[in-house]
Amino acid sequence: MLKSLIIVSLSSAACLFAPAGCAQTVSTTATAALEVRRVEPPDLSDAHLGKRILCERPMRHGAPRLCVEQVGDKVVAHDYGHGGSGWTLAPGSAEYVDGLLIASPLAKDLRTDTPITVIGAGVIGLFTAYDLCQKGYTNITVMAERFDGLTSHNAGGLLAPVSMDNDPAMQSVIERIGLDAYRFYAQVARGEHPHFKTGAVIVPAYFDDRKESGLEAYVGKVMKPAKDVILDFGTGTTRRMVAYDDGIFMDTAVMMQSLTDWLKPRVKFVQRKVQRLSDVETRFIVDCAGLGAGALNGDAAMVPVQGHLIMLKDQDPAKLRHMILVYFGEGKTASGMKVKRSFYQFPKHLPDTGAADVGVVGGTFIEGAGMDMPNEDEFRILIENARKFYGLSR
Ligand SMILES: Cc1cc2nc3c(=O)[nH]c(=O)nc-3n(C[C@H](O)[C@H](O)[C@H](O)COP(=O)(O)OP(=O)(O)OC[C@H]3O[C@@H](n4cnc5c(N)ncnc54)[C@H](O)[C@@H]3O)c2cc1C
């Protein structure tokens, strides 16, 4: 990203944006002295579009489930239902729930060599196993139906507590967890973490406004205040946006690999679908089963929220060192389902792809759509909206 230092009067910077499938929106800018930043759009021509990804956010209405309970003869700590913010919360969430378990009166006989089973090998399960190791526990099994191609590998990677449905009573816990997670990733990004050197970077994050970013609660604690800026895409299109220059991008598939590599010599990995909690051999369980936790616990508050992503290829990675997220409002899919559409772009990279295969665009939010309802048309709408956002003809 090139950063211009020119401060100009922008009364002429008004622009028009009508995303496909959405009501037309007119974005005007007030006459004000704002910093103008040149941000090069990625190449969104057909030849530069890579893998299409469809996946489901494990949404739990009312907040993620973070608690400890007795289930038959098992002591179960629950850590699931983080919706579109699992990565944003994972390290803090793991630390919080492991702490609840250790402090629980139900776990009086839990010693550091007591066997513990973590169900789930997504980001929540892996961070839980990592945190237990950090706390000195030595007999950990990560048991999961699947280890590859999970929602956790596919996720975009923006650190922002958005796309959850939280009961206000839980908000202070979510904020505390979010701040701890930010500190963890910032340490990785700054090269100061003792175990992880890749997987998180500090880059500017751009939003339409401060409230939508979800990041205001971080300002003054771990982040600096946002700035109003004008993004100039060099296509004749400019947009007034809000910039958090200390935004964090989590390179999700890369970080999953780093976590797995760190854990491999320290914990046991067992591939198995757990049908009932009572089938697990150990008395202590941490339930990080994501969407699968709905069936395991008979938890009707769990619901899938489908998302569409398109990986980019053959790009100039130096031009993609930023994140953008804007929302367009609600529409209907071709199959008649309610869809909340947005456009986001992050510098995501998949291991085992070329060095220039960087960047992802998303995204949709379709509650209740399972993998058997792919809503394929949304991929086309997504890329059309992305091109319109930047003022690209194709
Ligand atoms: C399109 C999209 C974009 C996203 N972007 C972001 C983002 O930018 N930032 C952000 O913070 N978050 C983002 N998210 C959300 C984030 O990806 C999820 O919240 C997070 O990955 C959930 O992690 P998890 O470990 O709970 O679940 P998962 O990754 O789904 O892992 C669940 C694990 O549990 C196992 N399991 C399930 N049931 C059983 C069972 N019965 N027995 C044994 N194992 C079982 C599975 O096999 C798997 O190993 C995005 C999600 C989507 C879909």
What features would you describe in this structure?
This protein has 394 residues and is of the alpha/beta class. The protein folds into 2 domains: 2-58 and 200-250 and 304-390, no CATH class; 62-186 and 252-300, Rossmann fold, CATH 3.40.50. The protein has 8 helices and 18 strands. The chain has a 10-stranded mixed β-sheet with strand order 1-4-11-12-10-16-17-18-15-5, with helices on both faces. Helix 1 (86-103) crosses helix 2 (123-134), helix 1 (86-103) crosses helix 4 and helix 2 (123-134) packs across helix 6. The chain is globular and about 65 Å long. The two termini are 21 Å apart. Residues 1-31 have low confidence and may be disordered. Bound molecules: flavin-adenine dinucleotide.
How much strand? Answer: 25-35%
Mean pLDDT across all amino acids: 92
The major β-sheet equals:
10 strands, mixed
Number of helices: 8
Q: What's the number of structural domains?
A: 2
Helix content: 10-25%
The parts where pLDDT drops under 50 for at least 5 residues are: 1-31
Given the helix and strand composition, which structural class is it?
A: alpha/beta
H/E element string? EEEEEEEHEHEHHEHEEHEEHEEEEH
Distance between the termini: 21 Å
Please compute the radius of gyration using only Cα atoms: 21 Å
Spatial order of the strands forming the largest sheet: 1-4-11-12-10-16-17-18-15-5
The counted number of beta strands is 18
**Which molecules other than protein and nucleic acid are bound?**
flavin-adenine dinucleotide
Oligomer kind: single chain
Overall form: globular
